[in-house]
Amino acid sequence: MKSLIVEDEFTSRMQIKYFLEEFGYCDIAINGLEAIEAFKMAIKLNKPYDLICLDIKLPEKDGHMVLKEIRKMEEEMEGPQSGKTTKIFMTTAMGDIKNVNDAYYHLCDEYLVKPIEKGKLVEKLIEHHLISVVKPKL
Q1: Which fold has domain 3-127?
Q2: Where does residue 131 fall: left (phi above 0), alpha (psi -120 to 50 degrees), or beta otherwise?
Q3: For residue range 25-74, what is the model confidence (pLDDT) as tens digits?
Q4: Which residues pair with 29 in a beta bridge?
Q5: In this structure, which of 3, 32, 35, 72 has its CB flanked by the most CB atoms within 10 Å?
């Protein structure tokens, strides 16, 4: 699984990376503009992201804007990536109904409120067929 973590806060960024790197490769973007560029580059290289963990409060472009742009780019894609969508999990401290509704309206796949719990994240990865059932470590 190839993931992009879009998070400006160091501790949250490293925590999500720690959780996800067990399942594959993780890139990091610290603002909305970097997220858009990373997404474009992955598509250009024909190595799209399977998952994007996207914070809402970001410098440059907020997470809602990034979500809308990515979904628009996916809509316009041609070639081997045509019709494929990246799973986008909003990972944010903002649990209010407006932000949740806006995110789902613009087609996020999940909305996880910080602090992110590894068990919950893994459950959602399984639910969205990004990973198989995880065997407990001994």
Answers
A1: Rossmann fold (3.40.50)
A2: beta
A3: 999 999 999 999 999 999 999 999 999 999 999 999 999 999 999 999 99
A4: 6
A5: 35
